[in-house]
Amino acid sequence: MWIKINKNFLAISLILFSCFISAEENPKDPYENFNRGVYTFNDTIDGAILKPIAKGYNYVTPDVAKKGINNFYNNITDFITAVNSFLQLDIEQGMTDAGRVIVNTTIGMLGFIDVSSTNVNNYTDRNKQDFGTTLARYGWRDSAYLVLPFFGPSTIRDGTGLAVDGLFINPIGYIDNVALRNALYAGWIINTRAQLLDATNLMDDAAIDPYAFQRDSWLQMKQNQIDGKQQINYNDYLDDFLTEDDASDEAIKSSANENQNIESDSISHYKEAESNEANKTSQRPLASHLVSSL
After folding, report:
1. Is the pLDDT of residue 86 over 90?
2. 8 Å CB contact between 166 and 138
3. I need a surface site. Which of 19, 198, 253, 259 has the fewest CB within 10 A?
4. Strand stretches in the chain, DSSP E
5. Residue 258 pLDDT exceeds 70
6. Nearest CA among 82, 80, 85, 73 for reference residue 110
7. Can you tell me the distance from the alpha carbon of 115 to that of 108, in angstroms, rounded to the nearest whole number?
8. 157: which DSSP letter?
9. How far is the C-alpha of 205 from the C-alpha of 280, rounded, in Å?
């Protein structure tokens, strides 16, 4: 009996110890196993459904129409931002955000024309706030990373904020016509995914763990948003992130080129690869909500 109790106690202790070690390794991602499973699910749905639809949308839709549709949904996001700026008691910023929405909704014909981003007004810098950021401003700053089915990277705090924004703040939710409301939501998903095609291609090309890359870049983006840094320099972040994971690979490639003594071809190939990497860098900043992010 005593031996059996001790074995049970030892087993429980080992489980708790392993959980403790896991939390110590990455305290921001204590549910990593679960998150990776959801990430794989989202990635599968994205590859099978969303990405092909987004590619088809890009192919058949004229650029001017895509721009107008993107502006329309940005205007809705600006409305959510304005409400949250007021909820954060940032009245001056809230007035600026509301001014952008009013100008684009009226002169810009429901936001299809982004009049506020021209150089003839004071609304050129787009602010971005949500209820998750509002909760952080009121003290809930630290929250565990959580990948949501269909919606992608988030935290427990930001998942709560996403629900509040979607149910109570997003104006689409107040449309009585169910068919129209669902069509607008579907259009938002397709438009967002189409906007992220280049970003996800960049992530797929990078020789890194895509889950960790998405997690760390999203958490950094969110932290900058909470800290009030509207302009996020992903160049420096990606350089630092890629250096650790790719340094050994680059060293191996260099060594292989030297050992093979293919001087001119190797040098030209290396320069071409370096140029391609520079082109990838020029595509930054990377969109933070990579869809597995939908």
Report:
1. yes
2. no
3. 259
4. 145-148, 152-155
5. no
6. 73
7. 6
8. H
9. 9
Neighbours of 255 (CB within 10 A): 10
Q: Is the dihedral of CA 232, 119, 113, 79 positive or negative?
A: positive
**Whose CA is closest to 266, among 275, 256, 279, 251?**
256
| 70 burial type by CB count under 10 A (0-12 exposed, 13-18 middle, 19+ buried) | middle
The answer to whether 86 and 229 have CB atoms below 8 angstroms apart is no
Overall average pLDDT of the 181-210 stretch: 84
CB 240 within 8 A of CB 250: no
Tokens 């190797």 sit on residue = 266
pLDDT in the model for residue 122: 56
Identify the CA nearest to 289 among candidates 219, 230, 206, 242: 219
Who contacts 126 (Cβ-Cβ below 8 Å, separation ≥6)? 74, 78, 100, 117, 230
Tell me which amino acid residue 252 is: I
